[in-house]
Amino acid sequence: MVLGYPVRRVLRDELVELLLDRAAGSEATTVGYLNANTYNLAQRDANLRRDLLDCDILYPDGISIVWASRVLGSPLPERMTAADFFPRFASGCAERGRSLYLLGGAPGVAERAADRLRRDLPSLRIVGARDGFFSDRDALRVVDAVNAAAPDALILGMGSPRQERFAMIERHRIRSPLRWCVGALFDYLAGEEPRGPQWMCDAGFEWLFRLAADPIGKWRRYMMGNPRFVAAVLRARAAGQSAKVGR
User: Fold this and answer.
1) What residue spans define the domains of the chain?
2) Is the dihedral of CA 134, 58, 178, 186 positive or negative?
3) Euclidean distance between CA atoms 81 and 36, whole angstroms
4) Three-class SS string for the chain?
5) Which of 28, 31, 99, 186 is most buried as measured by Cβ atoms within 10 A of its Cβ?
6) How far is residue 222's CA from residue 213's CA, in Å, rounded to a whole number?
7) Which of 155, 119, 158 is nearest to 136 (CA)?
């Protein structure tokens, strides 16, 4: 557990194999992630908190949760983010004949992300791609389109909290075995948003690159959200230490 959430203690390669297995399974698996931003959002959004807790697999996204796990005395093995290991997952899908449906992003983004994946992996089966700009009234029609395409994995890139809410509200109607929330992944694949250099990502400063690349769009998330998250972690540590002293 990290900050009250059941974050999976897993390495990237182990997670990829787990997701590939679940995409071939007979039972539905909803996959989400926890990072500083989703934690902060869930503090103010009871639905998102419940949706994250209800995920079958919740993995640590980025350096923030790994740092928190170390501060709180239960260190996770490594940082991870979908943009780092999704290519391995897609490659595994191509090798095993698994199919994908990309749902999310602005108009045209999912389609361009699909084109990129097809160029990199010609044998990968992408059975559908569409944007996430649809109303709640149209959700059933979107689910019907996904089910008609019959993907093994529905990849949801609608951002938090919408992607998690959609996955949970529609979980009994969606027939794809794997439903995976991936945030901004489609923007990266489509070239809409740049990623930082690998050394910066590995060092845990990808957030700083994203802030520098889009200060207007990202300042609230990072300049206000990061200190709020750090304060929450330090309060949790202090509360844990107080509880130990009390015993």
Assistant:
1) 12-246
2) positive
3) 13
4) CECCECCCCCCHHHHHHHHHHHHCCCCCEEEEEECHHHHHHHHHCHHHHHHHHHCCEEEECCHHHHHHHHHCCCCCCCCCCHHHHHHHHHHHHHHHCCEEEEEECCCCHHHHHHHHHHHHCCCCEEEEEECCCCCHHHHHHHHHHHHHHCCCEEEEECCCCHHHHHHHHCCCCCCCCEEEECCCHHHHHHCCCCCCCHHHHHCCCHHHHHHHHCHHHHHHHHHHHHHHHHHHHHHHHHHHHHHHHHC
5) 186
6) 12
7) 158
Residue linked to tokens 């919740």: 58
In the numeric block, which tokens belong to residue 151?
């993907």
